[in-house]
Amino acid sequence: MTATLLLLHLLGATIWTGGHLVLAFTILPRVLKGRDVASLHWFEQGYEKLGMPALLVQIVTGLWLAWQKVPSLSLWFDLDAGPIAHLIRIKLLLLLLTALVAAHARFRVIPRLSPATLPLMGWHIAAVTLLSVAFVATGLSFRVSWGM
Ligand code: HEM
């Protein structure tokens, strides 16, 4: 069961983090340079169909894996419960920040997307991309220490 959960979690991570890295490093620079709102809409609409289910899979499998490691909600939020609970709290914080930035982009920025608001959208994309990489780094930290 754990192997299946991990497989789904890793597949979701490739889609969520990989998709945002492609967006941030290949699509966004071209969109900003050409002030090409239509191309950004085109990518967002296509990616959303895969990206949103992937994030949902991350949340469900992530919470499940976290419960397997620390099966107590009160321990998740107990600052003295040790390093694994600490990593779970970091994941939850990253999730909260991602939800806030993504919701702001989806409901405030995207509906008014224009060449003038493209840079603002760029900052939102950069923030969600950084958070997505932080998700992966934190996930890895359950298994490996960073030698610090
Ligand atoms: C987009 C969001 C997320 C991404 C990209 C992501 C990515 C990853 C990655 C790459 C790993 C490493 C797996 C391994 O060591 O083989 C991992 C592990 C883990 N993640 Fe996430 N994760 C996300 C969201 C979450 C959430 C919301 C939770 C819930 C608290 C969570 C909980 C965990 C746990 C408990 C592990 C350790 C699994 C294990 O080693 O058995 N993740 N994650």
Could you characterize the architecture of this molecule?
This protein is mainly alpha-helical. The protein has one domain. 81% of the residues lie in helices and 0% in strands. It has 5 helices and no strands. The protein has helices at residues 2-34, 37-69, 73-76, 83-109, 118-140. Helix 1 runs antiparallel to helix 2 (37-69) and helix 4 (83-109) packs antiparallel against helix 5 (118-140). It comes from Halomonas alimentaria. The chain crosses the membrane at residues 50-67, 88-109, 121-142. Residues 45-137 form the Copper resistance protein D domain.
Number of strands: 0
User: Mean pLDDT, rounded to whole units?
Assistant: 96
Q: Beta-strand level of the residues, as a percent range?
A: under 5%
Helix segment count?
5
> Which ranges are low-confidence, i.e. pLDDT below 50, for 5 or more consecutive residues?
none
Number of domains: 1
Distinct ligands? protoporphyrin IX containing FE
How much helicity do the residues have? over 70%
How far apart are the termini? 32 Å
How would you sum up the major sheet?
A: none
Structural class: mainly alpha
Radius of gyration: 17 Å
Give the SSE string.
HHHHH
Molecular shape: elongated
